[in-house]
UniProtKB/TrEMBL annotation:
The lineage of its organism: Bacteria, Bacillati, Actinomycetota, Actinomycetes, Kitasatosporales. One of its GO terms (molecular function) is aromatic-L-amino-acid decarboxylase activity. This is Pyridoxal-dependent decarboxylase. Residues 1-16 have a biased composition (Polar residues). GO terms for cellular component: membrane.
């Protein structure tokens, strides 16, 4: 997205407020929706390498849409009124448990990975409170753990204890995580894989250490849970990460990623039903109907449940194995091609469809792990050049010695486009190196760094954001991201919050 000038919010009155227009024919309304989509990145076709998961199977989108439509008016809140939602959820959870669970595994269908993770953290907090009397809960997680864990920590009053990962492999340091675990730890986290670099943490060691301290261990398999087992079935070597490991007590897996269901479909699994009980919320002390919510949601759209159920049933075991084989083939071809581009370095050892690579400013071979300041500018210029050529590669800023990079999510739909991507990447890299490096204005950085994020007003934030984006060409993000990268974390987060607030402002 390209930052827009900060907009001053005018006073909204009964006279100036926007009202609904006169009713229009359905065809006109749908035509307007289709026109609005034209400015978005494409979700099909294999050229958007983040946010979307495309199986490339003919008719799958239509099946999901039809299944959703069949259940669009059904409320998943009360399964005694709509018993079919319990059947659909049980079928989905049973399939996930067969793939990732152990005898006795129970689970819940959720709206996505963030909700699955939030529920796992709540369960761990409440379990530790009830069983061990923990009143000041903490969770130990590697620095590569998904931001959703920090969101859950903020929502639920759990202190995150962040442990650096191995600087060469980007995998969690099991020994350091064990050392960070204490009597207040309610949860230890591992990723299979981590989103940023696509590497699988040493789950077996992390889970065993957690079990030795009677601490729960959650495996974030939102990305890999529906891919890694099928890669193994397709003949690839995949380290164990499932509940077959005794210390693993919960797992999250997104069906809207490599399960290829539409967005809004995930599952969180628990070792047993007694553990899952701590996830639930029940309340009867009010004059309305008795409330029992397995998830954060009350009212639940059963259409999302139905479309996920339909997609899983349609693709089947052999279908997912073949799709996993295609993802592996695309990954192999991409990694081989990246190795031929001067100055390109793949980060870690990608194992599950995600690839992150960085580039150096000179174009020669990398030696060691140090990355110069100029690489951030080059990485961002390269992202912009690729977007101009019709590809979306996700920029990731540097963090604690981990270099800035471009992140790609490979799906079966990308298989036919890998060669074209590599060809354009070579041209884009040459073009990016020819551009003037972007540097953050030192004076502005010093000025911004002196601002207090807690007291920063909208006008001050607007001034910093406007200056960061001044002079940038349409569609180019390098200038503003370099500026943000140079700022302290809390200030960076505040400015990002203000920016998003400006986008969603009427």
């Amino acid at each position: 997205m390209t930052p827009t000038p900060w907009r001053t919010r005018s006073a909204v009155t009964a006279e100036t407020a926007s009202r609904l227009p006169e009713g229009r024919p359905a065809g006109e309304v749908l035509a307007e929706l289709r026109a609005l989509r034209e400015a978005d990145a494409p979700t099909r076709g294999g050229r958007t390498f983040a946010y979307v998961y495309d199986a490339g199977l003919e008719g799958l989108d239509e099946l999901a849409a039809a299944a959703y439509s069949a259940y669009a008016t059904v409320n998943g809140l009360d399964m005694t009124v709509f018993p079919s939602v319990a059947r659909l959820e049980n079928d989905i959870v049973r399939s996930a448990a067969a793939l990732l669970g152990a005898p006795g595994t129970q689970g819940t269908f959720t709206s996505g990975g963030t909700e699955s993770i939030l529920l796992a953290v709540k369960t761990a907090r409440d379990h530790a409170r009830a069983v061990r009397g923990v009143r000041e809960p903490r969770m130990v997680l590697p620095s590569t753990a998904h931001a959703a864990f920090h969101k859950a920590a903020a929502y639920l009053g759990v202190e995150p204890v962040v442990v650096p990962v191995d600087p060469g492999t980007y995998r969690a340091d099991a020994a350091a995580m064990e050392a960070a675990t204490d009597e207040g730890t309610v949860l230890v986290v591992a990723s299979a894989p981590s989103y940023a670099h696509g590497v699988v943490d040493p789950v077996e060691q992390i889970a065993a250490a957690a079990a030795g301290r009677d601490v729960l261990c959650h495996v974030d398999a939102c990305i890999g849970g529906w891919l890694l087992p099928y890669l193994r079935r397709a003949g690839r070597e995949v380290p164990p990460f499932e509940m077959t490991l005794p210390g693993v007590t919960s797992v999250s897996v997104d069906l809207h990623k490599y399960g290829y269901a539409d967005k809004g479909a995930s599952v969180v699994l628990y070792r047993d039903g007694e553990l899952r009980r701590h996830q639930y919320f029940a309340h009867a002390a009010w004059p309305g109907y008795p409330v029992v919510n397995p998830t954060v949601q009350g009212t639940k759209p059963a259409g999302l449940l139905a479309q996920a159920w339909a997609v899983l049933r349609h693709v089947g075991e052999d279908g997912y194995t073949e799709l996993a084989r295609q993802v592996a083939a695309a990954s192999d071809r991409l990694l081989a091609g990246l190795g031929t581009l001067g100055g390109v370095r793949v980060l870690g050892r990608p194992e599950s469809g995600l690839v992150a690579f960085t580039v150096d400013a000179e174009g020669g071979p990398h030696t060691g792990t140090a990355v110069s300041e100029g690489d951030l500018s080059l990485v961002l210029h390269l992202a912009d050049e690729m977007r101009i050529r019709g590809w979306y590669l996700q920029p990731q800023l540097g963090f604690e010695g981990m270099p800035p990079n471009l992140h790609l999510t490979l799906t079966p739909a990308t298989v036919a486009h890998v060669d074209a991507l590599l060809a354009d990447l070579g041209e884009a890299l040459t073009a990016a190196r020819a551009l003037t490096p972007v540097r953050a204005d030192p004076g502005l950085v010093r000025l911004a760094a002196g601002l207090d994020p807690e007291t920063l007003g909208p006008d001050e934030a607007a001034a910093v954001l406007a200056h960061a984006g001044t002079g940038g060409e349409e569609g180019r993000m390098a200038r503003v991201l370099v500026m943000l990268d140079a700022l302290p974390g809390p200030l960076k987060e505040r400015l990002l919050t203000e920016y998003v607030g400006s986008v969603f402002r009427i």
